[in-house]
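Bug #77: duplicate submission created two jobs. Keeping one. Sequence:
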Amino acid sequence: MLFTMKGCIEEMLTHRVAYNPHLHIAKNFIALVNTALAGKEELPFSKTLITDSEIDLVKAGVSESALSAMNDRIGANILTTTKSISGSC
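Kept job's structure:
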């Protein structure tokens, strides 16, 4: 993403870099929380290593009955919406 940016820094970008802005902001948020919870002031802030495993989200378990019920609700909503759209034309 950054590699293709135009402007003053274009000539400094010599290698493609794998950059995930979501991962970056998540780690910065954790660093901010670590700083807020620190017992003493550190400068620069938060000298703790934040690994990728700290920001892995656990996937929610969804039962088959809950999945089936949601699919039924979505299907019913789609049918209702389709009928109201086709009836108004």
